[in-house]
What does this fold into?
Amino acid sequence: MEKIFFGGTIRTMDTSNPVVEAVLVEDDKIVAVGSYEDMVAQAGSDVELVDLEGNAMLPGLFEPHAHFDLASFMHKGNFIGGLVYDNADEVVAKMKEAAEKTPKGKWLFLFGLDYLINRDLPELDRHWLDENVSTEHPIMVCVQSMHTSIVNTLALETMGIDRNTPDARDGRIYHDEDGEPNGILTEQTLTYPFLLAWINDWKLNPAELMKEQFIEWKKKGITSTWTAGMQSMFPNQLALMNQWEQAAPLRQDYAIAFAPLESGAASLDDCPEDNPMFKFTGIKFWYDGSPYTGNMFMYDNYLENEIMQDRLKIPAHQAGERLFDQEYFYNMFKKYHDMGFQISVHSQGDRSSHELLDIMERVITESPRTDHRHRIEHCAFMTQEDIQRCADLGITLSYHVGHLFYYGEALNELVIGEDRMNSMFMRCRDALDKGIKISLHSDDPMYFADPLMLVATACSRTSRKGNRMTTDQAITVDEAMRAVTIDAAWQQKRENEVGSIEVGKYADFTILSEDPYEVEDPYNIKDIDVVTTYLAGIDTDTMY
It folds into this structure.
């Protein structure tokens, strides 16, 4: 089946042929680009004409760092975050309403607690949840960053956590003055079992949840995604996800989180054979945590104020921490590097990235590999010197610019301070100027997947409150669009298949109501409507 796409601006992201009049598709691949007359002349008599009707067509957009498995489940919880609710009264009312609607004895999962946006929230711990929400449900409250959870007394008892339970290698159990757990837990090893308890208690159907998530992401123009550390959330997860992907409206690549690999909960033998819809890319590590949990690893201390110490429970004189012993991390990194895998590492703080680069440099020097494409994820704070080291070592960067859009003011005023924001925060411009390919990501479910919002933020350096900051690191619309198309595809080693509109690639397209390149203020790119997407030449609106 042949199709000719025409009738609107078509931006290819191919630097040698950036704008074309028409595209000829045969079955699932692009077979020609050029003028409308040339495409008609090359096509058969039964070709289908797809009139863009003045809309813009671009390569299918990427979400190059999210947690599809987690997002599918967590977005089915009760959202209580500042991304939706304006004040503490609304949040508390939502929590109580959710408890009233939940049968007694069933797990209650609340997602998105946000002290930095809803600064009038009370201080939550197990006692507050017992007194104000419920003692008749095990409750898990996950903060927006996903690195901290707060649970009630019944949840602690149900999961067998008491004063004698040790901290995890990567996380901490907080305690009252009498030594009993106060319900605050950090990081995956401690928090995921509570999430799984909720999932299993409600017998949530992963096939249905993931289908719904596919549709939500497709509505944002996404045709390809990368799951940044697949967890083991249900039996036969990889095999089943591979099966579901074959009829999905977007492609999914994935790295496996190293923790389930090391614990034996997951195995590389479980990875299905790579195919155009579902592809294994490598291993995901975490070196530090979140600026909103206090374990983003910095050289200088966090700011000290009521929100940081009393609400977020970040001790005074705290600069964060690495999640793993350096020698242990070196051994794990080297193990998977020597096995030939692409390795991606979560790193937010300046000290975290510096130490991580020391380890990467050590491993790459000892065991050189060409085109390893190792990645650093999030890159919130990094010095110009360390960005240069990334360029020298061939490290590619994926920027979590939603931090600026949603939390720019909070980072400035409460968490880090203006000096470090101005010198180290989300240095996209510096990375591009040093020749590094970058991508822009949402980290969904931390922030809702929305590539156009990321483009708008990276170009304008403007928060959702309208405040511009660190504008010297603004990038161009073309650079930002590349960061959610061809350069994101390159990071996932898909640049020969997708990411641009070129002959031989899959016919993955995103149709937009406006051409992002023609929007006068780049901040308004986030308001462009997604008309539809095409995956392998098929209008995804027809797939469900």
About this structure: The chain has three domains: 2-54, 63-67+207-293+324-498, 77-202. The chain has 19 helices and 22 strands. Residues 519 and 525 are 7 Å apart (CA to CA). The longest strand covers residues 2-11.
